[in-house]
Write a structure and sequence with these properties.
The complex is a heterodimer of chains A (about 180) and B (about 575).
Chain A: H1 2-5, E1 14-22, H2 27-37, E2 42-49, E3 55-63, H3 66-78, E4 82-87, E5 93-104, H4 110-119, E6 123-127, E7 131-138, H5 140-150, E8 155-160, E9 164-167
Antiparallel strand pairs in A: 1-3, 1-4, 2-3, 5-7, 5-8, 5-9, 6-7
Chain B: E1 9-11, H1 12-22, E2 27-31, H2 37-43, E3 50-53, H3 57-71, E4 75-79, H4 83-86, H5 89-97, E5 102-108, H6 124-128, E6 134-137, H7 144-156, E7 163-168, H8 169-173, E8 175-177, H9 198-210, E9 214-218, H10 220-224, H11 228-238, E10 242-244, E11 259-262, H12 269-277, E12 280-284, H13 290-293, E13 305-310, E14 324-327, H14 330-339, H15 347-359, H16 372-382, E15 388-391, H17 395-403, E16 412-414, H18 424-434, E17 440-445, H19 456-461, E18 467-472, H20 477-486, E19 498-499, E20 505-506, H21 511-518, E21 521-525, H22 531-540, E22 545-550
Parallel strand pairs in B: 2-3, 2-4, 4-5, 5-7, 6-7, 9-10, 9-12, 10-11, 12-13, 13-14, 15-16, 15-17, 17-18, 18-22, 21-22
Antiparallel strand pairs in B: 1-8, 19-20
Helix pairs in contact in B: 1-2, 1-7, 3-5, 3-18, 9-14, 11-14, 12-15, 16-17, 16-22
Classes of the chains: A alpha+beta (about 180), B alpha/beta (about 575).
């Protein structure tokens, strides 16, 4: 977690890569296997069906200098089941992540935590005597910031979806 | 088989045989077992291709690889599930590293049993994923025809490579009404580029025209695309010396004046010199592998540009940054490039390189002893330079690269990328079956030959007249050479024969007796003067022959640039008493 706090949540040379793949058994293994075999680091990877049920979309965030990112993209394109690869980092894009965070909360602190939740337009999804669970949706800056605010209360658990992203405006990722 | 219109319904096994026939397959290598029985039940019903039973699935894989590399056609293997499939993994990895097109069909337990640790079950698509270009598990009979079509297409197109089709037993048994093998194949996620970008090619032409000390650096991609004519035209028109990688040998005729032969760790002094001095590298189907470059930060230090032509974009700028990348088939790109190139002369540069070629040729001692290089030199002359040579891995491989001179693509085969000992003999069997009218010679060491020696039964029974030259130096020679130079002569785990109490040793095995046991011919040569006669006998005997040459034991491969070093650290071998500048 500490790592994610640094530099406003956006690390240097962090790239958000969108990948359209055949929606088939084994495709995720091909991609994750390629990353591990070649020693590339994945920060997060999400996958889900697109509007076309034969196609899945992956969003991969990875770090590296330009030559490493270039190799990652080329090696992704080389996989037979990969239809399209785009590095969104070079273009105007939106990215979002959903985080569930369980924070220690008693009578004394609950009010302050609810306030922080409201300021960040996050949602309280569960509450009990000792803790609260909050759902946060946002970009990396927002998520780092809210986690930072919760930390002094005691974060008990965090579950993150990883980032999803797409171009802003009319541009879409076509097959 | 083969008359699809006459049959209302095909089983999975029948579809496999029909697909192989329609793909023009001539030979299938393999080994049966429980989970592939249905396919074998149909395999001997066809007259259109021959089935060759090897004695190990690894041998089948290498044989298909040798068949493929020597012919440019797709090699085919059929094996059973579990151990049958896992035994092909080394052959798949070998083919994958060197871009050899093979299709391996593996039996699999029935779909209902998959994942239950069934007898002879292995996760074959999982195991082979990193060592194949692509693989398939066919779970439905409806998917089988298009999958087989795609498998052959993927194997042979783009940068070629191995493809596995894992076929569960129930899919082999299932029937497909109205079966038809597809005529065409369309994969939306796989569209290899053949034509190079014209603007990039024009840039490349301008850079070549401007260069003062260009060098052509040619690899396996030039062999696969068979662009020798275009390479010769380019080299001659623009006065460019040509060096090749190990797998590029023969892509450019080695007998040509401008040929600098192999470069890299065991490359010639003149090839490495040219690479060190060049201002423009023109890479054609080569990937700047570490055995070529040595230390990346000191490789080709005077270069101002790198033109990199390759069909695989991921090979470009992987280790050496290309200033002018051109993605495309080597032949198609070179043809376009030639349209934009005017003749150029570079007398000073060419003279500088060719003078060194004349002054510092590859050499070995001429002292009457039986040197391994001498065997290859004689083989070259006695086969008039025309044989297909399949080298195993190690010192024998480097000497095969040095002392036989290849003049055409697909004349030299070897496991370059993976360095698979045991590749040579089965690959030579495959090459001989693809080229029945040519002389095929396997050159191996006494170590590597024993890694697939069981295939002698295949060569014997199937009447495959491969000639095997064993350079028997009693050691795992390349390892011994490294131990001599980098581990203070601590020869650990490298002696192959039986030490005797009197300090002598006994050769194990006796290859002549082994040949007798297998029904092939074995000849043992211990003296230099017997070399010619033995090679002649081997060449005129119409069956598999092994010649066991008891060569000098501590011969080294020279020159050598130690791993991770640069041309500046080249060891020429001049100080080596064995090497002798006679």
């Amino acid at each position: 977690m500490a790592d994610l706090q640094s530099k406003n949540g956006l690390r240097e040379h962090e790239h958000v890569i969108s990948v359209l793949v055949e929606n088939r058994a084994g495709v995720l293994a091909r991609i994750s296997g390629m990353f591990s075999a070649r020693g590339f680091n994945i920060d997060s990877l999400t996958v889900g069906e697109t509007a076309d049920p034969t196609v899945s979309r992956m969003t991969i965030t990875a770090r590296g200098d330009d030559s490493i990112i270039e190799q990652i993209i080329k090696q992704l394109r080389k996989l037979i089941d990969v239809i399209r690869v785009v590095d969104l980092s070079h273009k105007d894009h939106v990215d979002r992540e959903l985080v569930l965070v369980k924070v220690k909360a008693d009578k004394k602190t609950r009010g302050e935590i609810v306030q922080i939740t409201e300021i960040f337009r996050a949602k309280t999804v569960d509450v009990s005597h000792e803790e609260m669970t909050i759902e946060v949706v946002g970009d990396q800056n927002k998520i780092s910031a809210i986690l930072d605010m919760f930390r002094p209360f005691g974060i008990l658990e965090v579950a993150r979806t990883g980032r999803v992203a797409m171009f802003r405006g009319a541009e879409t990722l076509k097959l | 088989m083969g008359k699809s219109s006459a049959k209302p319904s095909y089983t999975g096994a029948e579809i496999v045989v029909d697909a192989l026939e329609r793909e023009g397959v001539e030979v299938v290598f393999g080994y049966p077992g429980g989970a592939i029985l249905d396919v074998f039940d149909k395999l001997n019903q066809t007259k259109k291709f021959r089935f060759v039973l090897t004695r190990h699935e690894q041998g089948a894989g290498h044989a298909a690889d040798g068949y493929a590399r020597s012919s440019g056609k797709v090699g085919v293997v059929i094996v059973t599930s579990g151990p049958g499939a896992t035994n092909t993994v080394t052959a798949l990895a070998t083919a994958h590293m060197d871009s050899a097109p093979i299709v391996v069909i593996t039996g699999q337990v029935a779909t209902a049993a998959i994942g239950n640790d069934a007898f002879q079950e292995a996760d074959v698509v999982g195991i082979t994923r990193p060592v194949t270009k692509h693989n398939f598990l066919v779970k439905r009979i409806e998917d089988l025809p298009v999958t087989l079509k795609q498998a052959f297409y993927i194997a042979r197109s783009g940068r070629p490579g191995p493809v596995v089709v894992d076929l569960p037993k129930d899919v082999q048994k299932a029937a497909l009404p109205g079966y038809q093998y597809p005529d065409t194949v369309e994969i939306r996620s796989y569209k290899p580029v053949r034509e190079g970008n014209i603007a990039q090619i024009k840039k490349a032409a301008a850079a070549i025209q401007r260069a003062k000390r260009p060098v052509l650096y040619v690899g396996q991609g030039a062999v696969s695309s068979e662009c020798q004519k275009e390479l010769v035209e380019l080299a001659e028109r623009c006065d460019i010396p040509v060096t090749t990688t190990l797998l590029g040998l023969g892509a450019f005729p080695e007998t040509h004046d401008l040929a600098l032969h192999m470069l890299g760790m065991h490359g010639t002094e003149y090839a490495n010199f040219a690479m060190h001095e060049t201002d423009l590298i023109i890479a054609v189907g080569a990937r700047f592998d570490d055995r070529v470059t040595g230390a990346l930060d000191r490789f080709a230090p005077r270069r101002e540009g790198v033109i990199h032509i390759d069909i695989d974009p991921s090979s470009i700028s992987k280790s050496i940054e290309a200033t002018i990348p051109v993605v495309g088939d080597c032949r198609s790109v070179l043809r376009e490039l030639l349209k934009h190139l005017k003749p150029a002369k570079r007398p000073e540069w060419v003279k500088q390189v060719l003078d060194l070629k004349a002054a510092r040729p590859l050499r070995f001692a001429n002292d009457g002893k039986l040197h391994p290089q001498y065997v290859i030199d004689r083989l070259y002359h006695l086969t008039k330079g025309e044989a297909i040579i399949v080298a195993d891995v190690g010192q024998n491989q480097m000497w095969s690269a040095h002392y036989y001179h290849y003049t055409r693509p697909r004349q030299f085969l070897s496991s370059g990328g993976l360095g698979t000992m045991g590749y040579g003999f089965p690959a030579a069997i495959g090459a001989q079956l693809a080229n029945p009218d040519q002389t095929v010679v396997c050159i191996a060491g006494d170590g590597g030959i024993q890694m697939n020696i069981q295939e002698m039964a295949t060569a014997s029974i199937e009447n495959v007249p491969v000639k095997v030259m064993i350079l028997n130096n009693s050691y795992l020679g390349m390892v011994r050479q490294w131990q001599q130079h980098f581990y203070k002569r601590n020869y650990s785990g490298v002696f192959l024969h039986r030490r005797l109490p009197d300090g002598g040793f006994e050769y194990v095995p006796d290859f002549v007796k082994l040949c007798e046991a297998y029904g092939t011919l074995g000849i043992c040569v211990t003296k230099r003067e017997d070399v010619d006669e033995a090679i002649r006998t081997a060449l005129r005997t119409p069956k598999c022959v092994f010649v066991d040459f008891h060569v000098e034991q501590e011969e080294n491969v020279w020159p050598m640039i130690p791993a991770g070093q640069s041309f500046k650290e080249i060891m020429t071998g001049d100080e080596d008493p064995q090497h002798g500048l006679a």
